[in-house]
Amino acid sequence: MATFTIEGKQFIYNGEPIRILSGAMHYFRIVPEYWKDRLLKLKACGFNTVETYVAWNIHEPREGQFNFQGIADVERFVQIAGELGLHVIIRPSPYICAEWEFGGLPYWLLKDPSMQLRCCYKPYLDKIDTYYNELLARFKPLLCTNGGPIIAMQIENEYGSYGTDKEYLAYLKQAMISRGMDVLLFTSDGYDDSNLQGGTLIPDVLATVNFGSRPEEAFAKLQEYQTESPLVCMEYWNGWFDYWGDEHHQRDNDDVVDVLDRILKLGASVNFYMFHGGTNFGFYNGAGFLGKYEPTATSYDYHAMLNESGDITDKYIAVRELLSKYVDLADVEIPSSIPKKQYGIVRLTEQTRLFDSLNQLSSPITSKCPITMEQLDQDYGFILYTTQISGPRAMNKLVLQQVHDRALIFLDGIYQGVVERNTHDQTVEIKENDIMVEIPPEGATLSVLVENMGRINYGYGLKDPKGITEGVRFERGFLHDWKIHSLPLNNLSKLAFGDMPENASFTPTFYKGKFHVDEVGDTFLKLEGWTKGVAYINGYNLGRYWDIGPQKTLYIPGPLLREGENELIVFELHGTNNPIVIFQDFAELG
């Protein structure tokens, strides 16, 4: 057993003063085989603590069905940290933000259109209680009070930037206490007045602040609300994440070290967000929304001290040098970089078109109006809406009323264009880039393939159902009588691939190829000449690619490969006339 408490402005661990020097890494963004490597590098850098969020949607992917295996084995992650002599800070809020799909909330909350999120709404609280019954029981033996490494837990995440329901925060606090979470509880928020007024439970719960610069200003504001407690920056933003179509964010090492030095001179504790970012594998990237929808890239490199593939960076070395002036560095050898391999050019030799493969992927339902993924109990991926339009009808504008998030339009199987959430004009006025179609006398088949590009994780649009959320209009009137295919694309084993046709296919198509590996190592998949889609290695969803960047390669950790034959499947939305890829030994960002 151990104790971690507060005495005045100090943390006390087992009777001795301690400053928390922590780094964030998320077990669900790192393959389990690499957890120990990343944690050792954290300790060797001079840190004594690791912090991680807990993603509800990883652990309860379907309501009432819990998962704590593989990359979701958070207990093992915590145990490894403890075995290495690290303390652990857990942030198990129902909502985590984290640029993660729906901020960690499970999609199935939105099956109920009346659901109210992040407030004292009983149906929402009931779901949390069921989840906490399962989750917190797993953490109890790992608490420092029971001999484990967990010293502190967060109640909610940056709640002051979202709402003001103190009853909700108090409910979560009591939910933890009643389930035996007898460690230090805290909140974390931005450091302006509205954040600190809305998101904290001062004086009953320790308040911490999040920032990337101006530590003197941040802590001065915190002390206006909380005078006699330790100073903690729970998120020191030493880098930043990337949106698709944006630049790759970088932060100068000297600036990072300067701000850290000022934090430490103030006597504060600190948690680097991020120490190691990792990867948004599968369809788990989130999206921001502050006036427009901005999906996060697959790479969560974050320009952190360890890059996406876990290698130490110049920033790591600079921070370690500074920390050595404040603490004695642990006698731990920095693990060497995991070998990177180039497996060269691979040609994908088989293909099957999406429209020819629907029966292998989905059983359709019919509906008078388009309905959302959540109403069909679909979590991620794509959804296809198909209807017949009678003719003749003169050339007119096709409108998707509230599409979330990006749609490809086909008339009798022929591509007409793309509709994107941010730019689609829903008025009756004809404007440039509108989708205009003409219906012949015999009528036509309209197909709309919608991609869920990630539910919103931050901002005032958090309630973000996917698909066509209202309807489809042509000639000012709504179209009815739809056939709908759910396409989560979580199992491609039933696809029937054939030889590549002589003519290129510019329609959504699955491409398959095989390649041989003599020696397994990390590698990076480059899809130059491809447009947008998803890549799978040996059945594992690596995530999305998109030629608008800034990300130009997909990271493949070595444990996803095997010696001998390996299989790559690429689902390309726009088709390609040269289905080759490159496996190279370096990442390309920006």
From TrEMBL:
Reaction catalysis annotation: Hydrolysis of terminal non-reducing beta-D-galactose residues in beta-D-galactosides
Domain Beta-galactosidase 1-like first all-beta: 370-487
InterPro entries in UniProt: B-gal_1-like, BetaGal1-like_ABD1, BetaGal_gal-bd, Galactose-bd-like_sf, GH, Gly_Hdrlase_35_cat, Glyco_hydro_35_CS, Glycoside_Hdrlase_35
EC number: 3.2.1.23
Domain of life: Bacteria
Key words of the record: Glycosidase, Hydrolase
Enzyme class, UniProt record, top EC level: hydrolase
Coiled coil: none
Annotated Glycoside hydrolase 35 catalytic domain residues: 10-325
Domain Beta-galactosidase galactose-binding: 508-566
SUPFAM superfamilies according to UniProt: (Trans)glycosidases, Galactose-binding domain-like
Family label: Belongs to the glycosyl hydrolase 35 family.
Protein name: Beta-galactosidase
Organism: Paenibacillus planticolens
